[in-house]
Amino acid sequence: xxxxxxxxxLSHAAPVPxxxxxxxxxxxxxxxxxxxxxxxxxxxxRLEVGSxxxxxxxxxxxxxxxxxxxxxxxxxxxxxxxxxxRLALARxxxxxxxxxxxxxxxxxxxxxxxxxxVAAPGDExxxxxxxxxxxxxxxxxxxxxxxxxxxxxxLAARGSAVVLVGWGPPERCTASSVLRVATKLADPLxxxxxxxxxxxxxxxxxxxxxxxRPDGSGRVACPFGYADTESALKGLLSTGLFDAAVGxxxxxxxxxxxxxxxxxxVRRDGxxxxxxxxxxxxxxxx
Length: 286
Hints:
By secondary structure, the chain is α/β, with parallel strands linked by helices. The chain has one domain: Rossmann fold. About 40% of the residues lie in helices and about 20% in strands. The protein contains 12 helices and 9 strands.
């Protein structure tokens, strides 16, 4: 696998319009990233991630999922080229010297530009590859993921697990009503109802295009809970799913409409609670 291919398929299609990328990365790490913890736990439990696991995380963000795998004893490698600011935070969390007692390079992080970090000489093949960023919300993300997985698969042992993630049914994801704001603002000619997350069949299609064999799936409840509306707004915008909307309108308009869309989920104490379900697919390398 060439590092340029890793970088190409983990990068967003358009530049981030907001100026303070470091603040946005902090919002992701401190607010939004933890919303998928139940998903990470369910996958790691099912795949029995532990001291004998060598895991490659594609699109590792600020490293929370890797941290959880490392806490189980796994040796982890993370690739994140879409947002260097997130990778910097992952390095803060996962520097090798923070794991006292571990011998050797238990944790590696890269932007995909250094192939020796992704697959160092003498390394055993990866046993698990994860792509935890849910697909189906932005145009072309499934095609890019297929190509990325096809390139990463040779780094894994035969029959290794590859994990793909998508949103659950819209009727079970209250966040879908807020995400429709992004679709409406980014492309006014499309109706809000045209937003559709990836289905199980979509995930299987991605796997099959990458030469992987589907081998099980599951659903996990991942409610989005926020201290207040401001926190919810920061967390949701940090996902990058509203970038096209900001580019097509302006940040003030997006903030206003997202805040309005959040109102049905504001509880009496001011907190925001949005039940959601995510689905994951486990595929196997050939």
